[in-house]
Amino acid sequence: MHTNRFPSNMSDYGGAGVCRCCFSFLLTSGLTTLFLWLSLHTSKPVCSIQDFYVSALNKTLNSTSNHSIFFDLKLENQNIDKGVYYDAINLTFYYGPNISLPIANYTVSGFHQGHKKYTHRKDLVDARGVPWDEVFRGFRMGQWRFSG
User: Where do the TM regions start and end (predicted)?
Assistant: First the structure.
């Protein structure tokens, strides 16, 4: 007498077990994909100028002899679990629409920034080649305005 090694219907296989196995596989695959994406996904750092001050344009000083420009550069790493290494950051300052004539340059040295951190780089640069008397008169007469 020959017995059939294969069950005659799906219920003999334990169909619920196969369904459970497929569901577990899909759930595990989905969660693994989500966690991998979250851990490998990075955000670009956010860079902004928080403060900008040109002492030659201060109307209360009534002098254009100080050519310093103060700036506060904020760099923010929004990544949840990854630090960022910045190479040297070059800042170039221009007067007016002519970008072929820079009035000042500044370099922020490279550094490492931890995850979910921000830092400020504050400094002064000495601007050269700006007709400060002309610019100052323009501000006093209301010809110049800041926009942002």
Answer: 21-40
Residue 5 has pLDDT above 90, yes or no: no
Q: Are residues 36 and 51 in the same domain?
A: no
pLDDT reported for residue 60: 80
Task: Let me know if residue 145 belongs to a domain.
Answer: no
pTM of the model: 0.65
Does 74 share its domain with 128? yes
Determine, yes or no, domain membership for 146.
no
Total count of domains within the chain:
2
- The pLDDT confidence band at residue 53, using thresholds 50, 70 and 90, is very high
Per-residue model confidence as pLDDT tens digits over 78-114: 998 889 999 999 999 988 777 788 899 999 999 999 9
Domain limits at 79?
46-140
* Cα distance from N-terminal residue to C-terminal residue, the chain: 92
3-state secondary structure the chain: CCCCCCCCCHHHCCHHHHHHHHHHHHHHHHHHHHHHHHHHCCCCCEEEEEEEEEHHHCCCCCCCCCCEEEEEEEEEECCCCCCEEECCEEEEEECCCCCCCEEEEEEECCEEECCCEEEEEEEEEECCCCCHHHHHHHHHCCCCCCCC
